[in-house]
Amino acid sequence: MVEISIVIPVYNVEKYLRECLDSAVNQTFKDIEIICINDGSTDSSLDILKEYQESDDRIIIFNQENQGPGAARNLGINKSKGKYVYFLDSDDYLELNALEKLYNICEEKSLDFVLFKLLNFNDKTGKTFQTKYYNMAFLNDRIGDNVFSYKDLYDCVFNLAVSPPAKLYKRELITDIDYPEGIIFEDNVFFLKTLLKAKRIYFLDEFLYNRRRRDDSLTSSGSDDYYDIIPSMNYLFDICRDLDDFELLKEGLYYKKFKELYIRFSKVNDVHKEEFFNLIREDCLKHKEEIDEDIANDKLRKRSKFIYESVLSSDDYKEFHYRIRLYDKNKEINDLKKENKSLKNENKKLKSSNKKLKKENKHFKSTKAYKVWKKYSKIKD
After folding, report:
1. Which InterPro entries match (predicted)?
2. ∠ CA(254), CA(264), CA(269), 5° rounding?
């Protein structure tokens, strides 16, 4: 048995695949298998996989008709033999010491999985940039260097990055968990299931992965596939309904749902916006009784509540879009005002402290000790 199985779904990525594979085969941690699932590629991706396989017998290739990354990862999990499983996207690449660091932490702390930070880079310019979502800085304040579970994070558990490459999983944790197939937001469902099952999680505050931002990627396309976000978010609720702490998770679930719905609505192509808005409204009406009751019980944050109420009260998608943008802009202005006020108060405190120091300095210069020291300094010079 190998220690780590790297699972790579591959679909028409001939332009980026070599860089991805190089980052896998050249890992400083050597006890790995590299499971590549060719998901019906029509370009030269399969030829590239075979080329690398000839020089590295740790590479194992499986072929399937195009079914999407969820189905490819499911096959990879089923074929994996490692103690741990790592999901690598075929257009991205790992830092060469990533798996060694992650493996050592998992072994040292007996983890179910370890989380870490992803660094984004623009495919056209090569410029790197960080995002709040993939930094997960709030974990440092809430958890620090401790092992945790989702029960330590009820109010912010749905702020965690769901992307598969941000974790190294213990294989026994995920062997009975499948990615939903046929939808494009399957990561949300898979991650929630692993999160609820895991007892020992750790956050490594390091960038070990480079995430390529492409305009032609599926989740950047703005197509009507974005509609999948609605059933995906509802599925999260269904997963949690039978839990004893469902009520404690509701605020985060609503936050996640309405945030994701609006993000996808904002990014979907204009030609699809009206239909998408109508589907969101239909979903809100379907769950209206439950949502209204949860609003009465303070289960929705202000923005979640505003998005929900705007969906139902707006005459059309344009009014809805305008309302949310205005809400966000006003919040941004208010946050800047608060920050400005805080800086003014801090400046006031610094001025007061400076004034006090000047007064103490003046008093010191009038003392006998200062005069003796000054006289001694002149003699020494």
Report:
1. Glyco_trans_2-like, Nucleotide-diphossugar_trans
2. 155
Q: Which helix (H) or strand (E) holds 234?
A: helix 229-240
* Claim to verify: residue 235 and residue 347 sit in the same structural domain: no
Which sign, positive or negative, has the C-alpha torsion 243, 151, 99, 189? positive
Q: How far is it, in rounded angstroms, from Cα 155 to Cα 135? A: 18
For residue 368, how far is the Cα from the chain centroid?
63
Mean pLDDT on 187-203? 97
Same domain for 8 and 129?
A: yes
**Pair 7, 141 in one domain:** yes
Residues 174 and 202 reside in one and the same domain:
yes
40 within some domain: yes
Rounded to whole angstroms, what are the CA distances from 105 to 53, 173, 277? 29, 17, 45
Taking the C-alpha atoms of residue 42 and residue 223, their distance in angstroms, rounded to an integer, is 21
Q: What is the pLDDT of residue 114?
A: 99
The string of pLDDT tens digits covering residues 316-330 is 999 999 999 999 999
Q: Is residue 327 part of a domain?
A: no
Q: Pairing mode, if any, of strands 128-129 and 113-122? A: antiparallel
Tell me how many domains the chain contains.
3
pLDDT of 47 over the 90 cut: yes
Mean per-residue pLDDT of the chain: 93
pLDDT above 70: residue 333 = yes
User: Do 294 and 356 belong to one domain?
Assistant: no
Is 192 a domain residue? yes
pLDDT at residue number 222: 56
What is the DSSP secondary-structure string of 158-181?
GGS---GGGEEEEHHHHTT----S
Look up the domain containing 262 and give its range: 230-313
Is 88:211 a contact under the CB 8 Å cutoff? no
Asked whether residue 1 carries a pLDDT value surpassing 90, the answer given is no
- Domain presence at residue 42: yes
Same domain, 194 and 236: no
